[in-house]
Amino acid sequence: MLMSQPSARSLSPVFDADQRYPVDLHMHSTASDGALTPTELVTLCAERGLTHMSLTDHDTMDGIEEAARAAERVGICLIPGCELSTRWQGVSIHVVALMPGGLQGAMVEGLLQQREARIQRAEVIAERLEKVGLPNALEKARFHAGSDRPLGRPDFARALVEEGLVPDWASAFKRYLGSGKKGDVKAHWPEISEAVGWIVDSGGVAVIAHPLRHGLTRRKRGLLMDTFQAAGGQAVELVSGQQNPDSTRDLARQLVERNLYASMGSDFHFPGSHAAPGSMSLVPRTAAPPIWQHPRLVHLRDAPAGPLASV
Prior knowledge:
- The protein is of the alpha/beta class.
- The protein has helices at residues 38-47, 64-74, 106-131, 137-145, 153-163, 169-177, 192-201, 218-230, 245-258, and strands at residues 23-24, 52-55, 77-88, 91-98, 205-208, 235-240, 261-265.
């Protein structure tokens, strides 16, 4: 099947091969490590012609209420969400939670647990970075965060750049914060099955985020999907930002083999980066059903933003 362009108020049951889409179900704001406030993000999405979006900040839904008010003003359908940090076989795996009913049930306690985990993790990251030459790492990362929200690796990346230890944000991850580096701390996250349980038990849809970015072999990626599906997960981001088309087609085959829904998102964080709301690689022809056909989301296909504004 091919994904066709959704109209101004409905989502087609199939995908269309266009690099700019009116739906984006993975984006970040200042509620976590994004550069734009929820209102600014929604406004940008409207300017770029999006009709459906989800705000999926890291381990928090604090920006949803503001985003919902903005979405109602500009006429965008907002699906509340967040992106949970989890572990699987020692690998850090992100899971997007699409929460059509808003924050409720097990997710309330789950996000409190995630907040505490982020606080503890930031302290460990700071200790490690101080040993490699970033003095007062926690205070400097807090300065770059600009608020009292839990710190993430991008905050430390900005501190590393400001201190002159690396030339840019990407180099900070490559040298200090990326997978397997000193600042890559995973021990505080829940196992993926536990986090998926929070989402499903709270009326949400669990989605594996950017599965091609974890450096997994095809076999291990399949095992990850099997574990995820056994826990109640039902969707995977078929396209996340820019990715190799051959890898995307192979990923689509893995989704079809498991009857998993296909989601899509830019993983937008800040203007000027390689990602922009609604901008991502081509979605291939696939029999994998789009995420908005999921029974918990199908009622949102034609929904105006208004009903979600009270979330």
